[in-house]
Specification:
Rossmann fold; alpha/beta; homodimer; 399 residues
């Protein structure tokens, strides 16, 4: 992948790099690209069920969904992946109607082991299917309630390393296990992440890209506090959702040693659809938004607009015999050019080679490192989420 | 529906109401709730195809998708509705693979009649299916290229009133025709809208709700420039997208007689899923966001969490025998309470009775009027989108 930036250059102090380098071993996600995946791959290859249900919410499902939705338009996965995350009864009803329960594997994922949505749905499932070691897998922190349950009932269990936060866990067993089961090449996924990791820690290209961009965001937090990710393919829809959680939950914080509430607001957009929606606000609205475009260099698809002329619409014949992939990329370029013409909308472009495992592995690690670096620069803890605890306590009080 | 607001009260000058009242006849969407729908209903009742494909982007599809996704979890529609809006080749390929082309009706929708995405896809369809009056319907402005084509080829044609903008057109033929075909009760949809319209123009409850809220947003545009819609049911996912277009594209503008770029940034959230994502940013991030919660009073569903105790998780038995609809509503209440405790996050709650046509009709008209009133108050034109024209010109230049 390439990242072309249109921000002014800026020297980044070495302090940030030193701090991050010293965190290796403490912040667990840095090491995920180098893990041994033999146990996961072997387990995955022995799964016989056709339906795979991920029961998990937030960090326990968003990364897996990002990869699945990225690849599913092109790959014909033999197994079907479902997500049960919401307590919404209309959605739950509709999901369970589609399942042949006997041919289903349930993967119960909760880092803490006691997420209320996940456990409520788990209970509901247990009213339909008896707990058994062929149809249930547990992914949770070591020592959690769910881990203890798995041990007692001899259920297959995979650990989430304690130092890997939920929204940084897609490359741990949380994402790798369900993805390996449906047939995603998780080795290539990690290889993509590893490329970015090595380039960053060797302070080569990705280090330059990430620190320059982070420093622009941090220095302009008072002005450009909204960061739009404008992804030009439907394949990125769930990736955008993953980005929103990563960015919003990691950076929306009280600063260390301060009373200040700071944060950068993530927005996920899909092109060209959102050219007909949010774009007007970017072009003419308040100058508080930066935009990162994601483009696919090679869609690996041939779907041409036919050489057909429609009466009264001959003025649009200029797209005849153009490939749709060429049209969508030119649409992206036209919007990029029109925004650059404004001179006051900060933007950059990320271009991936193809829609495949390696590319999304790169994207994950790029955005994770970007998040960690921005967090250092604005002096917040990227890895906690204290703001959501009060609501949980209040909920419990209602019952 | 009810709208409970936690903003301080404020006297709204009558000027705004007078200006809007004088626009009746000029701004077309005000009159849509009172239109005669006989022709649409009759046409719809004669459609025999099982697959209905809406070919249209932005305002030509978002409203229809909002209603369809709102109702489809509960209603078992006999016909299937598809949307072709993006020029993304991977998505187009995957959609067309699912279609039995002989059993498909194509509804080509473009207000201008020359939307590049829509016409490119139309051409692609014409390479698969010959243009014929049984399988193609045109919805467009009177006198547009598409209208002329329909006239020449004797295709069924429905008009979009010239004074109804794309993002305000869901209650015109744009939304009503495809929705009536799949079996949505469009009379009830309009009846919901009419309730809000009458209450607004009689200056009763909806007038109070809308003008108070609009005046809060307008007066605080410098501080709270991000407006989150936090909807507690998966059924609202596409409604949120509709809101984002309406709000962003209508309010992100250069002010009349001014050099200023102004705008309010819409964010769409789904509860409880986004409690595990964006919520942290609302609670602890910069104080630049207001939140509107949407709740469903009666989910009309019984799906209880069973009375099952899981070893090591007995501390969560407090949800046993609770209905999921009760849990999701209490989750919303707990978040509302925790935000109110902060004292500096402006919020309001919209509660609809049930998930049905009347409720979403009310929501459409409420948000449309809110948009029109805020636009008046911040002195922008809610009904144009000049910012997106430059990109179109540049695109054309590439070919």
């Amino acid at each position: 992948m390439e990242n072309k930036q249109f921000f002014e250059a800026f020297n980044v102090e070495n302090r940030i790099f030193d701090e991050i380098s010293h965190e290796i071993g403490k912040i667990g996600y840095y090491e995920l690209p180098d893990q041994n995946i033999d146990v996961i791959s072997e387990f995955a290859s022995n799964v016989t069920q056709k339906n795979i249900v991920v029961v998990g919410i937030g960090g326990s499902s968003l990364g897996t969904a990002a990869v699945y939705d990225f690849l599913r338009y092109k790959n014909n996965f033999e197994k079907k992946l479902f997500f049960c995350e919401s307590t919404d009864p209309v959605l739950l009803n509709s999901t369970f109607k589609k399942l042949d329960l006997e041919d289903t594997l349930f993967i119960i994922i909760s880092k803490s082991g006691s997420t209320i949505e996940t456990i409520s749905i788990f209970k509901y499932i247990l009213s339909l299917v008896e707990l058994n070691e062929k149809q249930f897998v547990i992914i949770s922190d070591k020592g959690s309630s769910l881990h203890k349950l798995a041990h007692d009932k001899k259920l297959p269990y995979f650990e989430i390393p304690a130092n890997v936060g939920g929204r940084f866990s897609v490359l741990s067993s949380v994402g790798l296990l369900p993805l390996a089961i449906i047939g995603v090449d998780i080795k290539m996924l990690l290889q993509g992440a590893k490329k970015i990791k090595e380039s960053f820690f060797k302070q080569t290209q990705s280090y330059q890209d990430i620190t320059h961009k982070a420093s622009f965001y941090a220095r302009n937090i008072g002005k450009y506090n909204i960061n739009c990710l404008f992804s030009y393919s439907e394949a990125f829809r769930s990736f955008n959702d993953w980005y929103i959680q990563l960015w919003g939950e990691s950076l929306g914080k009280k600063q260390y040693n301060s009373y200040l509430n700071v944060g950068l607001t993530p927005i996920g957009l899909i092109g060209p659809t959102d050219q007909h929606s949010f774009l007007q606000l970017i072009v003419e609205g308040k100058r508080d938004k930066s935009v990162t475009f994601i483009k696919v260099k090679d869609f690996d698809s041939i779907l041409k607009i036919p050489n057909i002329s429609i009466a009264y619409l001959e003025n649009l014949d200029y797209v005849n015999e153009v490939d749709f992939s060429d049209l969508i990329n030119k649409q992206a370029d036209s919007i990029i050019e029109s925004l650059l013409n404004k001179n006051d909308i900060p933007l950059d472009i990320i271009e991936i080679e193809k829609i495949n495992e390696e590319a999304i592995g790169q994207l994950f690690f790029y955005f994770e490192l970007l998040t960690s670096v921005v967090a250092k620069m604005i002096n917040v803890n990227a890895y906690d989420q204290p703001g959501v605890e009060e609501g949980k306590k209040i909920l419990r009080g209602y019952f």
